[in-house]
């Protein structure tokens, strides 16, 4: 079992994300500890928040008081709701949070059924509960829970991060080819995308772009792909690198296969409905473009906007880091298409000026606009450091967007490799 602990100051966001799953029938509340309950068993974010308010009011000095924890058994473990509740109680008790209000949500929208726990890190007298050696303590508790409930074991090595697989390219640090390779060779293993445009939307976050080129081979014209490193302004700052330098996985044939597989996976998934619900939830408040992107980022979703020379939007792409899927807005529905957002964000000249001023904090990559926060590429920095500092910067919304799915996939891949090695020869 793998545990991820998120800390931040966005209690409402953590509750809203989980409640959204419940409302879309992709999750449910399994258990509540020291929470105000309703007669009909139905809850809203506002109602759930009331249970935490006295704790937050007692301590206004602790900035990152919200706890958002995800507990993830191996996908092959068959865990009943009753056992999930017992696991959650054992975990919170051993971590020192048994007297805290907390709510346990079960998520079922992906093939890895798991639970999320939302709680608070300060007690009823306003004192911060110690989080010293939290990671080490959590790992030990997970190992004990695995033994107690006969779950498949994940050794501590499964928690070790891969060596900077998803680091944005820094041209000044040298060895650009190796930096490009670390992203290009791995990105398709974790993200589902159906077009080159969606592929580039993900690559842009890592200061990379790809371009199609034509080449003549034996008198036959064939399409190929080259890659470039980009600077913080989105300008190409490297010579083109042939896709063959990074292996077959980086070429058009492999990507076309990936597009088809992604189409089947996304077609069979309900992730798009959850994503659409999140977009509509944000759009209800009619935020401007900057605020729209900021709110979605708090939910683990990057918004990539493509504009032509006149500033008109001709494409919008959403990168959902929770489900590891990429969606062009028009594939989600007309209300999320480029034309819709052109109308949605139609503003007067003064507002346009304000948007341009605010956009100084944005980074433009090959016509892809990716909002930056204080820590650029924060949604991926966890592979170098998934400490509570990174999690807090993200607002403690989605623990799994900070590494949970990657750890699970790495764990599954290791298990598969072990089984292949052990398989007797016929």
TrEMBL record:
Protein name: Relaxase/mobilization nuclease domain-containing protein
Lineage: superkingdom: Bacteria
Domain MobA/VirD2-like nuclease: from-to ranges: 43-151
